[in-house]
Amino acid sequence: MRSGTQASGPKQHPLAPDFTLAQVNGPSLTLSSYRGHVVLLDFWATWCVPCREEIPHFVELQDKFRAQGLQIIGVSMDDSADPVRPFSQQFHMNYPIVMGNAKIGEQYGGVLGLPIAFLLDRDGRITKKHIGATPAEVFDKEIATLLLKQ
Amino acid sequence: MKIRLLLTKSVLAVAAAFLMVVQVAGQATAIPASRQVTPEDLVKLLQSSPEQKPLMIQVGSHVLYTQAHIPGSEYIGPASTEAGLQQLRKRVAMLRRTQLIVLYCGCCPWSHCPNVEPADNALHKMGFRNVKILYIAENFGNDWVNKGYPTAKGD
What we know:
heterodimer, A: alpha/beta, Glutaredoxin, about 30% helix, B: alpha/beta, 5-stranded parallel beta sheet, about 40% helix
């Protein structure tokens, strides 16, 4: 399993670009409305094998940390929502999924490979970027650490 | 009891072997090195004979293609889906079987790419014998864009 992580010091954490995007199974979602939560932003696609491998872990993490303030948001890079709806049901995805586009990809520095996950603190700042499939225990540890900070 | 246990183990072993074959069959790792082309070699090829460019086809995601793709390449759609394969077959149906075609994706690490092998397989079944697959080790961003190779944006 290969992954790349880019981390920076607290003073350098950039604000995550805000967006309002259509949800696959619900109303539009605005990222900034989740300020106060720790957010895991996952860029993925239904046909992406390493993305699929990560999703059951994300479902577990969402359940485990929901009460403490974790919100996972999936950004599907599929060409349409058609395969995403049945996929989300099959995998019992318990967090919102929005349909991504090239503009949002560019705002996040270019999503030119999948999966890519961004971890945001309660102020909406990007603290970590994981490129490629990342072990669940890495996310678990990083999320737990961020949730402790108010 | 022992016989039943042995039978169960045998069935599970066969099922596991079948699943492994299915998995390998859809992966880029099944593509022999002789049919792969590195980004460096593709760039050299494009620069050496710009008037005789191969047909380059991106068989991944449209969102990724819109952000960055090889200039002159065409978007077809993820070849891991039947819709993507149909588009691919339709695009090349009228071409000479000697046409040089370069397939690429770059959505995921090479060992996990679900798109290039089905696309290669489909072209092979149609009789194309001059097909190269762009070897992208990690993803299109790392292995093409960040290396400064020619890149275009948009549709």
